[in-house]
Specification:
Blueprint lengths: L1 E2 L7 H16 L5 E11 L6 H11 L5 E5 L2 E5 L2 E6 L2 E5 L1 E6 L4 H13 L1 H19 L2 E6 L3 E4 L3 E5 L2 E5 L6 H8 L7 E2 L1 H11 L10 E5 L5 E5 L3 E5 L2 E10 L5 H20 L2
Antiparallel strand pairs: 1-2, 2-12, 2-16, 3-4, 4-15, 5-6, 5-14, 6-11, 7-10, 8-11, 9-10, 13-14, 15-16
């Protein structure tokens, strides 16, 4: 298999889109918007779905959500929401640095992640939106301290949010509908961010970043955000990755962030 696009293809168009997003933020129309970009891979024969899933399971950590729906598959790190009886849990992620090639580089990156005002603002917008969403159907919402989650190619800030639900209990599917799309994949305010995405992204996201999961007859269930995946179509695979644009975002740094996110699935597709 080979990647059809070069890592710097469409960089100028990306820079222009980020500049327009930053203008909207500076004008007060947006607080944050997540812009996505795509990568394309082609193989000599149709991609073996079952083999790719096995490779994803082998590479994914214990906390990852391996998913498959027809030709759409991946391993997401982000829990949108789960429900167990009266308790709902979400673990939003936002704020990203690449994993370091050495221990020193890793330490510098993690220090930048935890010490950056920009990354903190990006993360807090998501956590606040999730907590406010759950508060609409809960007696009590508790927000834990942010922690660092290390993945194969990047590290994220993550915060667990738990809620004691009120009667009548919303199902896990209803909770997913209440929260999606969070500012981790859309932006804030939601409607303005979605309008900006429609105007600035030159493609349809399809199922990328949507909820993927299950709900049972009692209403319990678990839904992840469909990230770090690919849409398979015969010999072709389409991958998407996004970056949160907030005040202080640098277009080239955000482009590099998407490249690191794409790398997780590219390694699965292009590997032996």
């Amino acid at each position: 298999a080979r990647r059809l696009d070069r890592p710097d293809d469409h960089l100028d168009a990306w820079r222009a889109s980020v500049a327009l997003a930053l203008e909207a933020i500076a004008a007060g129309r947006l607080d944050k918007v997540v812009l996505a970009r795509e990568a394309l891979v082609e193989a000599a024969w149709p991609f073996p779905r079952a083999a790719l899933l096995e490779r994803l399971r082998a590479r994914a950590g214990a906390e990852a959500f391996v998913y498959a729906s027809d030709g759409f598959l991946g391993a997401s790190p982000e829990l949108l929401v789960s429900r167990r009886g009266r308790v709902a849990t979400s673990r939003p992620m936002a704020g990203t640095v690449p994993r370091g090639a050495t221990a020193a580089a890793e330490a510098r990156g993690l220090a930048r992640l935890t010490g950056s005002a920009k990354e903190s603002v990006e993360h807090r917008l998501v956590v606040d939106a999730v907590a406010e969403g759950l508060a609409k159907v809960a007696d009590r919402v508790e927000v834990a301290r942010a922690e660092v989650v290390r993945l194969a190619t990047v590290a994220h800030l993550a915060t667990e949010v738990t809620a004691a639900l009120t009667e009548p209990l919303p199902s896990a599917l209803e909770l997913a509908g209440l929260l999606h799309p969070t500012p981790a994949v859309g932006g804030s305010p939601r409607d303005a961010a979605m309008a900006a995405i429609a105007a600035l992204e030159p493609f349809d996201r399809g199922r990328y970043a949507g909820p993927v999961g299950w709900v049972d007859a009692a209403g319990d269930g678990e839904w992840a955000v469909a990230l770090r995946g690919a849409e398979l179509s015969g010999r072709r695979a389409r991958l998407l990755a996004g970056a949160g644009i907030v005040p202080g975002s640098d277009p080239d740094a955000e482009w590099a962030e998407t490249e690191h996110k794409l790398a997780a699935m590219l390694e699965v597709l292009l590997g032996p």
